[in-house]
Amino acid sequence: SVIRRQLNLVYEPREIKPPKPETDIVVLRIPYYGNPTHIYAKRVTTAVAAQYPLKQVRVVYDITARISHNFTTKDKIPTELRSGVVYEATCPVCNEKYIGQTCRHLKTRINEHLSYQKRVMPSLTQPHGTA
To answer: What is the domain partition of the chain in residue ranges?
Structure first.
């Protein structure tokens, strides 16, 4: 009867299950590179389970860090064709240093410096600023 079942639930001792030890979940975030990633994840989870039975590894595959992000399809711009650079030039006569910035190609600006030196070279026997 219904009453008997309810009384049995109250008066009969139940099986007391021992508490299970709590397992910690460790999140492992690895970049996804295809099948080798699955092999690596399996090896890590197996090794952790063998060494630390109270730890559980949850693998999260990170698709933002792919191999293609480590390489570029653009060619490297040669130094003399770069623009927006800061450069340092040294006077060949007095060894004074000049630091400049240009938004044009570096090669163009260097040629301007050289042409200026060729035009002014005869007067460079005097110190700068007195000519």
So the answer is: 23-71, 79-123
Per-state percent for the chain, helix, strand, coil, to nearest 5: 40, 25, 35
pTM: 0.39
Residues 3-58: tens digit of each pLDDT: 888 888 777 777 777 877 788 899 999 988 889 999 999 999 999 999 998 999 99
Distant-in-sequence contacts of 104-113, Cβ < 8 A, 24+ apart: 105/80, 105/81, 106/79, 106/80, 106/81, 106/82, 107/80, 107/81, 110/80, 113/89
Report helix, strand or coil for 1.
coil
